[in-house]
Amino acid sequence: MRTHQVAIIGAGPIGLELAVAFKQFGIDYIQFDAGQIGTTIAWYPIEMLFHSSSDRLGLAGVPIQTATQQKITREEYLAYLRAIVMQFGLEIRSYERVVTASRARGGFELVTQAIDGEHRYRVEQVIIAIGAFHAPRMLDIPGEELPHVSHYFHDPHTYFQKKLLIVGGRNSSVEAAVRCQRAGADVTLSYRRDDFDPKVVKFWLLPEVRALIRDNRIRYLPRTVPLEIRNGTVLMGSVDDDPPFEIDADFVLLLTGYRQDSTLFDQLGVELRGDDRQPVYDPETMETNVPGVFVAGTAVAGTPPRKVTVIVETCHVHVPRIVAAIQGARVALPDGALDE
Hints:
Elements: E1 2-9, H1 13-24, E2 29-32, H2 39-42, H3 54-57, H4 74-88, E3 97-104, E4 107-114, E5 117-128, E6 135-136, E7 149-150, E8 163-167, H5 171-182, E9 186-191, H6 206-214, E10 218-222, E11 224-229, E12 233-238, E13 245-248, E14 251-254, E15 258-259, H7 263-268, E16 272-273, E17 278-279, E18 293-295, H8 318-328
Helix pairs in contact: 1-4, 1-8, 5-6
């Protein structure tokens, strides 16, 4: 049983920024991630441009410089995260998933599963910085599990000279439609609403997608939903109860959003509120209703029902709040409290 003062669960941008601060202030910590650092960012499409400017994505006072002075790409940000880890000598137990977190005598007990097997740890405090996107929102329609169907858009080249149906109308769907059409795909875009929301689509993508639709280079099916995915075709329905119809599709991208895995919150007894199951926390300290359990980064959002409003640039403030709370009062449960 290894012991530490604090466990950081998650090694995304804010988790790494916390680790830098803990190291600078001499706080004993251990950090885990179920995958590699920046796992969620690694899921993003190749060469995707961030909406936030580089100065708002920088961590721990380390600026991000690009050759073009433009928005930073997925590849550049992943390289930047690796550089942060190397520059500050951060030790991260990547590919080690925390499978069980429970309250125990004097704090908390964590059980993890790593490449080399199971490990156990005792810590006084836990920081959950796991992000908000762990699994796709399933439509639960026939054919969703077929091999030509995906909930993740990665590379436009995959769909060159193929008929592609994209389902969704938020930023990821619009970007996929524009980029795949530019790469030579025959794109059909289905959205259950009339039009795109400019508050949730990158401002430079809206005029592009609207021009492509206007010029019939993207087929747009507003107020429609897929009813069944078949081999080579998709049965479509209307939100207005119009008769179903069938379209050709070699590939299907279901970009309908993602959900948070709240297992660790549930195991620790953190109160989750509302339809988005947002963790309840003190905004001054980031401590949840469970003493000694903090939440950081986009994990505070739970599963956003529609518009994503909590992003990296809005979460930097979590770091000094947590550091101050831990330095000011090291919270530990009394011996024997909820010993499991």
